[in-house]
Amino acid sequence: MNKTLKNAFIGLNTHYKLANGQTGRRVYLDSGASTLMMKPAYDAVQTYLAHYANTHSTVHTSAKITSSTMTWAHNRVLDFIGADKNEYLCTFIGNGTTAAANRVAEGLSTLRPEKDVVLISSMEHHSNDLPHRAYSKTVAHIPLTGSGQLSGQICIKSLEDLFEQHKNKVNYVAITGVSNVTGIINPIHEIAVLAHRYDAYLIVDGAQMVAHVPVDLNSADIDFFLFSGHKVYAPGSPGVLIGKRSIISAMQPSQFGGGMVGSVSKWGYVLSDDPLEREHAGTPNIPGAIMLACVLESLSRVGMQTIFKQERHLVKNALEKLSNCRTIIIYGEQKSQRVASIAFNLKGIGHGLVAAILNDYHGIAVRNQCFCAHPYVQEMLTEEFEELACENLDNDALEELIQDRRGMVRASFGLYTTEEDINELTKALIDIEDNIDTYHKHYNKQKDGSYNHKTFDSSANQSFNILDELDKALKICEKSK
Fold first, then answer.
1. How is domain 3-30+303-453 classified at the architecture level of CATH?
2. What is the dihedral sign for C-alpha 127, 133, 139, 140?
3. Which of 53, 168, 219, 290 has the most other CB atoms within 10 Å of its CB?
4. Is 325 a catalytic residue?
């Protein structure tokens, strides 16, 4: 991999004060929530801002630059995921994958109201679950291979059984390409073939896929592909909806305003003939879209196959090293291909406490709880809850203990994650196992299951304050008059 690009991210050298009085480099293992900013893409957009203007004009130079650069951004996204420009279009939309999923769910429910069943997997993030529940009459969950702690991929046989059960009523299937919890990769090609056999569309939530796995929509024949810029090294970028032109053209717009109409009078309006324009009411997030396209251009120069190969190697090594922790439970079927994330617990220790100690004493940023995938996480925790129920505890004590264990810790990776980061995580977890009684004395448990250090406030002890930074910037402006 290009080492220059691997190190070209803002925040890799961020240091924080720790509860032990030392100062350490932040080890960022929360890329599944949001990735760090790719600096070359950020720098390119800062340069573009000298020419910034709105689109929808061909009169002045800045507007022409913006319009042509936005056209390039749309095409760059389509090229990156192997989508034929004649068959697919790319739209930039609102709050990440969530906005894209809501748009498609609403549009398809209106387009084919007679097909009122939607199939989703039981491993979905809420952004690819709740929109379908909101807009469809019936949502059925596709079982996974394996069960409990060893849940695996979407089960193709179970999916086919659901199609047979609901016959011609299934409007579409919505599934994640890569689980945001376990990093398990789903067989989207096989699912696409099966969905189309039953006259159903396929929506793929690619939020955890785009930064980690090569994607080729043309070969997979996927109808809709959704992802978020902030999960692919472009914080501040919009969501992305890629869909087949023929389907989007038939869908009614969900947003109305400037730029998506051909003409307007006091007596009515006529929508634009261009389906792409109809999907972009108002001014889009122009800098964010361009920055995202710059990131994808940079990833293409490295090669997604190269990134995929190296990340699989990183995850494999991480799983091997983490197995040195004597009490660790790693979730998800172990033989499935994985990228992006590893979810785990240390047996007998609440996930909130583990995450707090990792941050406060080791400077390791991870995420805990249920990762907006509650049904999936709860299913994998079933066996542990059953074990707790067998202990001789009264109901209140049992409920408190279950609340403490109702979640996991997740380490999630990015292009910048190194073997050293994995080593630091492994050493920290072994330290927690060896010294949990001592650590426990320093924390108070909160009603929501989180843990607060009794004497150390990780936010109060840091030097960053946005108003201070604004004041510094304003003073520089005053001096430059």
1. Alpha-Beta Complex (3.90)
2. positive
3. 290
4. no
**Residue 386's closest CA among 372, 401, 375?**
401
Token look-up 């507007």 returns 63
Per domain, the residue ranges of the chain are 3-30+303-453, 42-301
What pLDDT band is residue 464 in, cutting at 50, 70 and 90? confident
Could you report the per-residue pLDDT of 313-323, keeping only the tens digit for each?
999 999 999 99
Q: Which of 38, 13, 397 is nearest to 234 (CA)?
A: 38
Q: Which of 294, 325, 370, 372 is catalytic?
A: 372
Distances (CA, A) of 254 to 87, 91, 96, 106, 344: 21, 13, 16, 8, 40
Same topology between domain 3-30+303-453 and domain 42-301: no
User: What pTM did the predictor assign?
Assistant: 0.93
Using one digit for the tens of pLDDT, what is the confidence trace for 198-239?
A: 999 999 999 999 999 999 998 889 999 999 999 999 999 999
Q: What's the longest Cα–Cα distance across the chain?
A: 78
DSSP E strands, 247-403: 261-265, 268-271, 328-330, 341-346, 364-365, 367-369
CATH code for residues 42-301: 3.40.640.10
